[in-house]
Design goal:
It contains seven helices and twelve strands. With about 250 residues, the chain is an alpha/beta fold. Strands 6, 7, 8, 9, 10, 11 and 12 form a seven-stranded parallel β-sheet that branches. A five-stranded mixed β-sheet has the order 1-3-4-5-2, covered by helices on one side. The two termini are about 30 Å apart.
Length: about 250
């Protein structure tokens, strides 16, 4: 079933109005017809199983058949603080993080980041990254489109993570798997968690120390060195499973 997002104000008691670019996509790309089923989310966690009622020039009217709430969202919130990687790796990271249930992705400029974005480049990148997040949310049947935040400095990111219940920073020089297990074991299904992932080259020692001083706990991802585009997805997978199976 094809999946689309609308603004909450487009949802009425019995019908939903789809406007904008999705109208053309439904009519001319998917070539959908009246009476076909469609899934619509309002971006706030409500999913509506609908049937297309009327196809107009610049609007699709869908009749609501069933409503579900937060059916595909994790009970807690996972935030990925991702050090800016090279090339187009950020696009893959955003796509997969959204599929794995991340509530938000925060690009972070660290001391070892090769990529430096000026204001114009950042605006262009953010627009594309948000579009990728939306597409991934549709594909994975998310009820919410996670926000891709504007780029933060490392200290700004640590400050933002201070509002979360748990913060963790995988670090290749931290080898204590017992301590790592303790950090993960204390995660409960309804918690908010920040995950810090370094760029190529990882975090410098002073950044890890600063994170620790501000309550972010170092963890290990095992004996192998993971690429930046792998590390975040590895810990997101672990935490997604824990949150979805926690009693």
């Amino acid at each position: 079933m094809h999946h689309f997002f609308v603004q909450p104000q487009n949802v009425k008691e019995e019908y939903i109005s789809i406007v904008g670019g999705d109208v053309n996509h439904i009519k001319n790309v998917l070539r959908m017809k009246e009476k076909e089923d469609i899934l619509i989310s309002d971006g706030n966690g409500c999913d509506y199983t609908c049937v297309i009622y009327k196809i107009q020039e610049d609007e699709i009217i869908a009749k609501i058949c069933d409503v579900s709430h937060d059916a595909t969202e994790l009970p807690g919130k996972l935030y990925l603080f991702q050090g800016l990687p090279k090339n187009d790796k950020m696009e893959l990271i955003i796509q997969k993080a959204v599929e794995l249930g991340a509530a938000g992705i925060i690009p972070v400029s660290t001391s070892r980041c090769v990529v430096k974005l000026d204001e114009k480049k950042e605006a262009t990148k953010l627009k594309r990254w948000q579009k990728i997040a939306e597409s991934a949310a549709k594909q994975s049947k998310r009820g919410v489109i996670p926000q891709v935040h504007n780029v933060l400095s490392f200290k700004e990111a640590v400050k933002m993570a201070g509002d979360l219940q748990v913060g963790m920073i995988p670090y290749e020089n931290f080898k204590d798997m017992s301590s790592t297990k303790s950090v993960i074991d204390k995660i409960r299904s309804n918690m908010s968690v920040g995950i810090f992932i370094g760029p190529e080259g990882g975090f410098c020692e002073s950044e890890v120390e600063y994170a620790k001083e501000n309550g972010i706990e170092p963890i290990s991802l095992g004996n192998r060195i993971l690429r930046t585009e792998t590390a975040g997805l590895a810990i997101l997978s672990i935490l997604m499973f824990k949150m979805e199976t926690e009693d």
